[in-house]
Design brief:
Elements: H1 2-11, H2 15-21, H3 26-52, H4 56-74, H5 80-107, H6 112-140, H7 143-160, H8 170-176, H9 182-212, H10 220-245, H11 251-267, H12 274-300, H13 308-336, H14 339-361
Helix pairs in contact: 1-6, 1-7, 2-9, 3-5, 3-13, 4-5, 4-7, 5-6, 5-13, 6-10, 6-12, 9-11, 9-12, 9-13, 9-14, 10-12, 11-12, 11-14, 13-14
Length: 364
Amino acid sequence: MFILFLAKWITVPFISVYVRSLGLSIYETGVVAAALGAGLLVFEPMWGILSDKGWKTKILIYSCLAHLLTFYLFSQVRDLPSLSAVRLLEGSAVSATGVSTRSLIESLSQKKGRAFGLWWGVASLASLVGPMVGGYLAGMEYRLLFYAGMGLAVTSLLMSLLILEPKVEPVEAEKSESRVGFKAIAIASFIVIFPFFSRSVVNSFLPVYVKESASFSASELETGLIFTVIGFTAIPAQTVLGEVSDRVDRRLLISPGMLLNCLVLALIPAASDIAQMYLLAVLYSVSRAAVNPPLMALMAENVASSKRGTAIGIYGAAEDMGLLIGPLVAGYTYQNYSPAAAFHLSSVFILLGAVCTYALLKKM
């Protein structure tokens, strides 16, 4: 999992900058980013259903192969339709990684907060190392990002062939069948749209903003370091808050986390130098850590064990809805109004999400 996530995070902070370097507009950059969300949205529920049928390792193997093809195609294509098609394929690969690895770790652990905190912690470790490597490679040649991704995808493929599918005891499945947990799935899936809307805005437009804004004129390495700070903070934050959520009411962490996320988005346009942006990156990372592991654990413990793969797939599709909407809304606002308007509008959207979250969590 770490190696595949590392391949992803070598490229994530620089895709939008790379697309801009090809001559595409800000809104077209948003369209390319939204294509990733569309691919995730289409495929994730399917992977969830298949994982419940004992396909977890097969899905992971597909993910490695699809990532390998995606990185190769990224190094070749140049126009909007082709880039969008590649990101659609990437969506199928990323969703396969998310569903298979989440389902595998969930099936092997009784403490869901700790399990999902560990999952997010490993993902964050990759996001710590990847942007530094990516920033160095992008400073020389953008294609090197994709060649490095191809090598890591091959390594992940070889390692995934060694993973054995965990077996679910029939008795456990029969007992849990009486509480599928549709209500928990619906509420958690609605809530998660908001933080992933925020995530898509940060991933898609913050690199462009700090590179093209006169206040920053950040290099690729400085841009990568912003995401490295996010990853560095997230490693302890995701793990600790996941563990804390096993000891207290998980709902106490989620709404405050979203409010902090809202504040960070509102303050991005007010930052006047790269050091302030690094501080905001720390706060942004903590806000994500307060939402992601507790919310997923809260859903998982209210869903039948035999249906958790399907639940994770539906939940993931809701994440993808945020990834699809965010770049389109923020990209349009960024291009037609201003960068500040894009971040402020996103902040208002997350504030709305925090209010809805507070009300809905009372029903879980």
